[in-house]
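Re: that backbone. Tokens:
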């Protein structure tokens, strides 16, 4: 459920809330206010630790299946341009990650990372219509052994102001392996070539590395 890598990514907020909890316990004089402050800091510590969980997933083995790159609610499926790696028209599947979702991102297909680009930007709320294009983001292009290409865009949000990379250009990943994570609420977009058969729909809840998003021909 937890890995050293995810907990290391959250070390500073975890240490801060751990220190606050310890201080509240040491300074607790038995008054209701002291107990309240201790309880609040302890709850925040437990929530922060739980945010950096990394559960195991049952990854589909069929090579034609494309899985979700992230946990969260599918909020958009629409035609869109993807100039970075696919080079034009594509199908975009957008997943919104709340602060309660797992924030690890995974490879949707088996393949090699052939393109990585980090783009500086704003930190609008991930639900804002402009967040997709204006927020800080990391674009990752993956190509399978037989030339099928997809793109994953990790987008920072209002609270999520750090995109952590665990796999860079040249890395070969199995479907479901880790790409990285975004700290706190954010958005992840999956771009697929036109003609890909979409199996998910808007409103579905996706689990990264497990939920079937589409099937390639």
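Recovered sequence:
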């Amino acid at each position: 459920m937890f890995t050293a890598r995810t907990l290391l990514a959250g070390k500073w907020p975890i240490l801060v809330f751990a220190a606050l909890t310890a201080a509240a316990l040491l300074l607790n004089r038995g008054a209701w206010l002291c107990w309240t402050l201790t309880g609040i800091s302890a709850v925040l510590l437990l929530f922060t630790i739980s945010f950096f969980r990394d559960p195991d997933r049952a990854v589909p083995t069929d090579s034609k299946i494309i899985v979700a790159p992230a946990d969260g609610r599918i909020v958009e499926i629409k035609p869109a341009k993807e100039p970075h790696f696919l080079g034009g028209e594509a199908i975009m599947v957008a997943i919104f990650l709340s602060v309660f979702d797992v924030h690890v991102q995974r490879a949707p297909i088996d393949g090699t990372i052939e393109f990585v680009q980090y783009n500086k930007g704003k930190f609008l709320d991930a639900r804002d219509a402009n967040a997709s294009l204006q927020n800080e983001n990391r674009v990752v292009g993956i190509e399978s052994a037989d030339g099928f290409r997809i793109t994953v865009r990790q987008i920072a949000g209002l609270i999520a102001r750090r995109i952590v990379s665990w796999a860079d250009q040249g890395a070969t990943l199995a479907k479901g392996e880790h790409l990285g994570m975004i700290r706190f609420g954010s958005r992840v977009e999956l771009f697929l070539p036109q003609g890909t058969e979409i199996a998910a729909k808007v409103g579905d809840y996706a689990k990264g590395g497990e939920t079937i998003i589409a099937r390639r021909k």
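The radius of gyration is 19 Å. Residues 32-51 form the longest helix (20 residues).
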